Structure formats: C-alpha cells, structure tokens
Amino acid sequence: MRLGEKLRYLREVEGALRGFDREISQAELARLIQKENGKSISQSYLSQIESGARPHLTNSTRLLLAKFFKVHPGYLVDDPEGFQNELMSDLGALEDKLDLWLVNGAERFERDVDLHRALLTVARHRDSRMCLVLLGEILENQGLAERLMEVLRGQAPAASATAPQVPAGKPRRRS
Fold it and tell me: Domain residues for 146?
C-alpha cells in the first residue's frame, strides 16, 4: 500500500472513530492536528501526500501524523513491492485468515469498546465463519437484530406467560 492510500485510510477510520458517517476531510485533519497537538500541517501538504506528488514525509510530519492517528511512525511509508501484512502459509486455513482479519479490525477500532470486544469474540470462537454467516442471516430477517439486542441487553418487556412472538412473515428458505 502506498503512503497516500494509508493516509486516506486513516482519515476514513478516524472519521468513523469520531462518530462521523464519513471520512474526515484533509482540511478537518489539518485543523484537528493544530487543535490537539498545537502543531500545523497544511491541507495542501496532505493533498500532495495523498496524490503521490510528495512520496515521502519529513520526519517531523511523520511523527506528527503518527501521534495524531496513534499508529507507529513506521506505518507511514510505502510498503515494499509485493508486501503482505497478513501471515501467509500453505498450512493456514481460511478460518485462520478470517480470525487474523477480525483481530486486526479489533485493533483498528479499539476506541470503540463494544465493536472491539465483538470482533475479538468472533475471532476467538471456534467457528468464526459460522458466526459471520449467522449474523448475515439475522440481519436479513427484518427487526430480528434489534429484538435480539433488546433481549440480550435486558431491555425486553417483563416476561409473560405467553411464548415469545416470532416476527411476522414467512421465514426465508434456501435451496
């Protein structure tokens, strides 16, 4: 991955971590760095980095961006040609790759405690693939995810003598 792609990715993640439904803009990044670190970096400099017009960072800029995004300064360089950030092995199964991907995702979202915990829980499960397929099935049944969250978080109405209600509509069947 190129340095510019990494910076765009970090802006996207930072936007999610700060509760935006979008990436933070280059201008917002420049303002936030100034506000939170008391040091400046221009929007045009960020644009040059992302476009590839400026392929390298000064050491002070690398340290400033690393501090802001809470990443290791060594991350903010181009990866060597053919570099893979996942462990590759002929013995590694699909499940192991999925678990590694989930753990990496959990690390990226460690500030969101609930999401971090959920990703690690799925990664630790003996069949993480099945967990994700199950989640897909739950989400395809309208209202089921919300109802499950209510029940699991103890927000369900007081237990009654009647059996739990099944959502209206015929369940989907796969052929």
Answer: 94-152
